[in-house]
Specification:
The structure holds 2 protein chains of 2 kinds.
Chain A: E1 4-12, H1 17-30, E2 34-39, E3 49-57, E4 71-74, H2 77-82, E5 92-96, H3 100-107, E6 113-116, H4 118-125, H5 131-143, H6 148-165, H7 168-189
Parallel strand pairs in A: 1-4, 4-5, 5-6
Antiparallel strand pairs in A: 1-3, 2-3
Chain B: E1 9-15, H1 16-26, E2 31-34, H2 41-50, E3 57-60, H3 64-76, E4 81-85, H4 87-103, E5 108-113, H5 129-134, E6 143-146, H6 150-167, E7 171-176, H7 177-181, E8 183-189, H8 227-248, E9 251-254, E10 261-264, H9 269-282, E11 287-292, E12 294-296, H10 300-309, E13 312-317, H11 322-330, E14 338-342, H12 350-362
Parallel strand pairs in B: 2-3, 2-4, 4-5, 5-7, 6-7, 10-11, 10-13, 13-14
Antiparallel strand pairs in B: 1-8, 6-12, 9-11
Helix pairs in contact in B: 1-2, 1-6, 3-4, 9-12
The chains are: A alpha/beta, B alpha/beta.
């Protein structure tokens, strides 16, 4: 089946949702796919639920937003409720494992779900700042349209100036990506 | 002399606001005047970052009234000048754009529509169609290009400068907040590599010689004493405008040979309309697609035969009937029933349009 994937991501401002979308679409574009990314934005400078709409396809993408996502990602308590409108029966709901209760409450028995302990991994094993890179890895693993190397190059373009100052950040980001990738691809293969 | 901003052609993945800044640079714009407003801000940000490298100017004014009038001033001085705004800023700019209409000044304004009326949302709408086409206290002697993609934003920003300077009517690129903020692939290029020659910009004030002796006076007036004087001036402008229409009017259409229902949309919504029509055709429903690219002048002559052939017309827009009103006015006398899927300030997806078409065909 030709590639045509729609992903909606939502989290609190500052969780890095928009960066994930930007890196994912930038990498997809560089890998030769058609890609479109649009953030939602309001009058507030910070706070509020941040939502990103991502589409990757073989054909040029039509409308910037969509009715139902193939993958919907909720990374905060408020985001769980906020993204309900973009989910359908065929949608895979990806969420942080800490939100299990809210997800059960709002989605009941949504057939396709993937709980990812990204927050816990980031806090205990890595660094809170790579939480979103774990999520990025999950999406790369789950969707399978990008090679890890292509994502690493996109990370380099996004954070290269930070890596230059502190090379250990590169390793940290790569580990986060790899860890997320494992979590996502295990599910994607099923 | 500074190097060309773009050598040859380049593929890029960027936001629409960035595309506009690159297009203005590539078109050889001399100066941008502006006042910040979302979702237009990054046009200014990118312009101010890049302009000094290519000896271009920027002036941040105290408000949009001033940004409009300084653009008028830049143009009078013979500069390829532009500004960009949205929503309430577009409202304030109408004063200056009316003056540009009166005095036949080739101003270029990029509008990134946001929700209205008033402050409303900073996000998106198609509610600035009326304002951009007819916002002045005059006859709407303007050219308005409605873009649907980053490629359009690039192409039509360049084209706007040439249309403005060739025909001497204020020219607008009507985008929206979605196009401003989204990222998608685009090819940016040096206009010369596509055979595009930029119209020459000449000053209208400070000309050499003594007016009335060495040369005709410039007579740049926005004030007239007598009704007859104004009438003569406007009649001449209206005649010029009408003569220009066949040369600048643009539209696109597809699947209109045997369509039972013609879907009409402009701007970013036309992408969803096109996708919906493709899907409907695959499902065996005879849907057609029409997109006005110039909203002013409106492509009436192109639309009329297509509308006459169709059995139904569905106008789809992120406003409450601003496009539908233009369509109805163009088709006066035709009996094809017209209905609208009207979502003021809301984005529209292909799925919604498919649903609206099916509902229209059932009714």
């Amino acid at each position: 089946m030709p590639l045509n994937i729609k992903i909606a991501l939502a989290g609190e401002g500052g969780q890095g949702v928009q960066s994930v979308a930007e890196i994912l679409t930038e990498a997809a574009y560089r890998a030769g796919h058609q890609a479109l990314y649009i953030p939602n934005f309001g009058v507030e400078q910070r706070g509020g639920v941040s939502v990103a709409f991502v589409q990757v396809s073989e054909q040029p993408v039509s409308a910037p937003k969509f009715t139902t996502g193939d993958i919907v990602v909720a990374l905060s308590y408020r985001a769980v409720e906020r993204v309900k409108q973009y989910t359908g029966a065929a949608t895979t709901l990806v969420y942080d494992a800490s939100l299990e209760e809210e997800v059960r409450e709002v989605y009941g028995d949504q057939p396709r779900k993937l709980a990812v302990p990204a927050l816990e991994i980031a806090q205990k094993e890595m660094h809170p700042r790579v939480f979103n890179v774990i999520i990025l890895g999950v999406l790369v693993g789950l969707t399978g349209f990008l090679k890890q190397q292509e994502v690493k190059e996109a990370l380099e373009r996004q954070f290269g100036h930070k890596f230059a100052r502190d090379p250990s950040l590169r390793d940290l980001n790569y580990r986060a990506l790899e860890r997320g990738y494992q979590l996502g691809s295990r599910r994607g293969a099923k | 002399m500074a190097a060309k901003p773009i050598e040859g052609e380049q593929r890029a993945f960027m936001t629409g606001n960035e595309v506009v800044a690159w297009a203005a640079l590539a078109a050889g714009a001399d100066i941008m005047y502006g006042y910040p407003i979302t979702p237009q801000n990054e046009i200014m940000h990118y312009w101010t970052r890049m302009a000094p490298r290519y000896d271009r100017g920027f002036l941040q004014t105290e408000d949009e009234i001033s940004a409009g009038f300084t653009t008028v001033g830049g143009v009078l001085a013979g500069k390829r000048a532009f500004t960009a705004t949205a929503g309430p800023g577009n409202v304030l700019m109408q004063e200056a754009m009316s003056m540009a209409e009166m005095m036949r000044l080739p101003t270029v304004v990029v509008v990134t529509q946001r929700g209205g009326p008033s402050t409303a949302t900073v996000i998106y709408s198609q509610q600035e169609l009326n304002l951009t086409c007819f916002g002045g206290n005059g006859e709407g002697l303007r050219i308005v290009y409605s873009t649907s993609s980053h490629q359009d934003l690039f192409n039509y920003t360049i084209k706007a400068f040439n249309t403005a300077w060739k025909y001497r009517f204020p020219t607008f690129v009507l985008g929206d907040g979605y196009q401003s903020k989204m990222r998608e692939p685009v090819t940016i290029y040096d206009p010369a590599t596509r055979g595009i020659v930029m119209e020459e910009c000449r000053p209208m004030v400070g000309l050499p010689g003594i007016a009335g002796i060495d040369r005709e006076p410039a007579h740049l007036r926005n004030t007239y004493n007598l009704e007859d004087e104004l009438y003569d001036r406007l009649t001449a402008s209206i005649k010029d405008y009408q003569a220009m229409i066949p040369e600048v009017v643009e539209w696109e259409a597809c699947a209109v040979d045997d369509d039972e229902i013609l879907v009409i949309a402009h701007g970013v919504v036309s992408r969803a309309a096109r996708a919906a029509v493709d899907s409907l055709r695959e499902a065996g429903i005879k849907a057609g697609y029409f997109r006005p690219i110039t909203l002013r002048p409106f492509p009436e002559e192109a639309l009329q035969p297509l509308a006459a052939r169709a059995q139904r017309i569905l106008v789809v827009e992120s406003a409450h009937g601003q496009l539908e009103r233009q369509v109805r006015a163009s088709l006066y006398g035709l009996e094809t029933p017209v209905s609208g899927y009207l979502r003021p300030g809301m984005g529209i997806t292909p799925e919604e349009i498919i649903g609206a078409v099916q509902q229209t065909l059932r009714s």
